[in-house]
Amino acid sequence: MIYDTLGNAATYYPLGHRFKLGFNYLSQFDPKTADGRVPIDGENVFAMVQSYVPEPAAQRSFEAHKVFADLQFVAEGEEVIFHSPLASLRETTPYLESGDAALYAGDDDFPILMRPGCFAIFYPCDGHKPGCVWRSSNRVKKVVIKIRL
After folding, report:
1. Selection from 92, 124, 118, 122 nearest residue 105 by Cα
2. Which DSSP state fits 34?
3. Can you name the CATH fold of 2-148?
4. Among 9, 45, 106, 136, who pairs with 89 as Cys (CB 3.0-4.6 Å)?
5. Structural domain boundaries of the chain?
6. Is the dihedral of CA 57, 61, 66, 68 positive or negative?
7. Along the 149 residues of the chain, how does pLDDT read in single tens digits?
């Protein structure tokens, strides 16, 4: 798991060309962009633009992916993403290839505060529970860049 601000994105370019494409998209992102899927590099890199109100952590599940890394970026609003090593979680919904995700339950031990300009990268070994309310209810505009590993 990596957590930083978009101003430091160039530090992570050595992760590979696909990550660089994702960061380049985020550096030009307009929060007025409509929700939905945005192609960046075919099925290798694409953006999922989302708007929502975060929920209490107890109503959310941890997730993990096998094929894609998540580069999660908050453009507006704030939320918490809880992180936990996959080995410390218990699977509640088996992995489905069609959605590249399995769901998990576990303790909310490591909160990551996501504010505008912040990003987090989650790899297959990283359980993560996004979309959790922080201090009070607010509207979040978020981009999840899916990067094929």
Report:
1. 92
2. P
3. Jelly Rolls (2.60.120)
4. 106
5. 2-148
6. negative
7. 999 999 999 999 999 999 999 999 999 999 999 999 999 999 999 999 999 999 999 999 999 999 999 999 999 999 999 999 999 999 999 999 999 999 999 999 899 999 999 999 999 999 999 999 998 889 999 999 999 99
Residue 45 pairs with which residues in a beta bridge? 41, 147
Point out which residues pair with 23 in neighbouring strands. Answer: none
Its sign, for the CA torsion 98, 99, 102, 104, is negative
Instruction: Check: pTM over 0.90? Answer yes or no.
Output: yes
Tokens representing residue 85 in the block: 């090593």
- 89: CB partners within 8 A, 6+ apart: 62, 64, 104, 105, 106, 127
CA atoms of 149 and 141, how far apart (whole Å) = 25
Which amino acid type is present at position 148? R
Nearest to 25 by CA among 131, 146, 113: 146
Q: Which amino acid, residue 75?
A: A
